[in-house]
Amino acid sequence: SQLILRHQLHRTASKAVHLRTLYQRCRVIVDKCGVRSWSHHLRAFNKTADALANLAMDTTCSRQL
């Protein structure tokens, strides 16, 4: 989401406790990969992400590819 990208861009952890661990894990991977920029893509332009998000919401189960 745009909120998650904003946290990564500014290198600030979320105030939400359940997101802090995810932020830290992501930060480690990002630093190892050398990510230089972030961009947000609206769901309307990313049909795969939209389909996966809908599947997760409908089945109340997370999926990873």
From TrEMBL:
InterPro entries: RNaseH_sf
Protein name: Uncharacterized protein
GO molecular function terms noted in the UniProt entry: nucleic acid binding
